[in-house]
Write a structure and sequence with these properties.
Largest sheet: 5 strands, antiparallel
Strand content: 15-25%
Radius of gyration: 15 Å
Mean pLDDT: 88
Number of strands: 5
Strand order of the largest sheet: 3-1-2-5-4
Helix content: 25-40%
Shape: globular
């Protein structure tokens, strides 16, 4: 299994809005709206960062309850396997591809779909993977049962899940790819 991180070529990989102050993150989003209005990030609403911080805290706490050992307050984001749709979020989309075995499994968690629809109170479809964070061994069972969303829902017709999000709770492996 490979984990992918998609990013804007001009920015570089693993630049994390959650590592900034709230004002700093809003400034970056404002700049994206002005300079790259066709990018996915340009469409994020003003409450985006507040929701993101809350979802990250929830995911972190759920992961710790399962024995996770995060060393970061907020995660770096990746996805399980390739997802062309994510590359389209960027004007000049690029990706980093890392074998999952390079990570300590107690430093990575997973949501079946993006964290936002996974934890959003607006999504009430009662799918078993809502409101849940998975460990590596658990996500393998979920993938066996449901498959990869980018294969069965590449155009989003069947719901909000279009990939499996990976929350990387450590800088250790990431640092080798931030050149």
């Amino acid at each position: 299994m490979f984990l992918y991180h998609y990013y804007e070529e001009s920015t570089g990989p693993f630049k994390n809005l959650s590592d900034l102050s709230l004002n700093g993150a809003e400034e970056v989003l404002r700049s994206i709206r002005e300079n790259r209005p066709s990018s996915m990030a340009a469409g994020r609403d003003l409450a985006y960062m507040e929701k993101r911080i809350n979802y990250e805290m929830l995911a972190r706490n759920l992961f710790i309850e399962k024995g996770g050992k995060p060393t970061r307050k907020s995660p770096h984001y990746m996805v399980v396997e390739e997802c062309e749709w994510l590359k389209s979020w960027y004007v000049n989309g690029c990706y980093v591809k890392i074998p999952v075995e390079e990570f300590q499994f107690n430093k990575i968690s997973f949501t079946y779909g993006d964290m936002f629809p996974t934890f959003s109170s607006a999504i009430n479809d009662e799918k078993e993977y809502r409101k849940k964070v998975y460990t590596y061994s658990e996500i393998l069972s979920v993938i066996e049962k449901y498959g990869l969303p980018q294969q069965w829902n590449s155009d989003g017709k069947f719901g909000p899940e279009r990939y499996i999000e990976v929350q990387v709770w450590s800088d250790k492996t990431i640092q080798r790819y931030c050149k």
